[in-house]
């Protein structure tokens, strides 16, 4: 728990999370547990000593050197997920944590291409994650949205295959899958790799978001917007291009910022280096998120607290962040109104105590 006097206020502040990878909620304990249950061979600790135990794996997670260094563990870890129940258990574990942190609405990413690549059918992955979402809605009162991420380290054909699978199952029409994203390694693959798929999706009215400007320079953000992205995941390097930043503010494009992730992956050396103040001053809407909480050692409330400790924001600024998180969510107007009222009530009850 953080020491800031605003901790209690931040805990109860109604939150929306828009940037969390369900596979990034796989803790070392669950990796070892599922590997044993499913008879999956983890990497040989003789070759990679990090895999000696759950605690050595966790220690290794504190020493990521880059996005790609993290991704190698992230893609290795998810190999233990085999059955629909495994995916459901993973999603449920995240929602329980998120609910305890004051999340009311969660939009969650998943990477079907990677699971298909290791022989798990698309339908099994979605069945499990949807079961976790439905349980969170029924038992915790959350609203949830599943966002299918294309991964940039695999060929366009494999992204097209999952897009076709989602279409064939009617998952966009039925709102089982609410939108598309793109993630994985940033600098290297063509910036506009998913242009044909995003173009086709846009014509069908499917929502689009894209990881950009995490390690890559602002031109990655520019390209993502040009391809139809309505939100930008991370986007921290936007502050390096004042003109583009003014456009993002003018168009109300929300950034889904992940402060602890950015420190853990060495995009910045401390949360205080993030352009939070710059974005507030420029009118750029953003939400605060956990990205891959099991790997980075912090869920959403830890991220809110880290920002508070670094920037000492006012209650009015927290109101703006919370309200923008609602406005940038892919939910119906009635749900937005309800969440905005909850924020208002929380601030009227606890805001003056926090000041
Ligand atoms: N931080 C991140 N950036 C890009 N792809 C990811 N996949 C999971 N976490 C990611
Ligand atoms: Zn991410």
UniProtKB/TrEMBL annotation:
GO terms for biological process: adenine catabolic process; hypoxanthine salvage; nucleotide metabolic process; purine ribonucleoside monophosphate biosynthetic process. It is found in: Cytoplasm; Nucleus. GO terms for cellular component: cytosol; nucleus. It catalyses: adenine + H2O + H(+) = hypoxanthine + NH4(+). Its main location: cytoplasm. Gene3D superfamilies: Metal-dependent hydrolases (3.20.20.140). Zn(2+) binds at residues 19, 21, 211, 291. SUPFAM superfamilies: Metallo-dependent hydrolases. Binds 1 zinc ion per subunit. The record marks 234 as: Important for catalytic activity. Substrate binds at residue 292. It comes from the Eukaryota. Its cofactor is Zn(2+). It holds the Pfam family A_deaminase. Keywords: Cytoplasm, Hydrolase, Metal-binding, Nucleotide metabolism, Nucleus, Zinc. Its EC number is 3.5.4.2. The active site is at residue 214. One of its GO terms (molecular function) is adenine deaminase activity. CDD domains: ADA. InterPro entries: A/AMP_deam_AS, A_deaminase_dom, ADE, Ado/ade_deaminase, Metal_Hydrolase. Residues 14-345 form the Adenosine deaminase domain. Belongs to the metallo-dependent hydrolases superfamily. Adenosine and AMP deaminases family. Adenine deaminase type 2 subfamily. NCBIfam families: aden_deam (TIGR01430). Catalyzes the hydrolytic deamination of adenine to hypoxanthine. Plays an important role in the purine salvage pathway and in nitrogen catabolism. This is Adenine deaminase. It comes from Penicilliopsis zonata CBS 506.65.
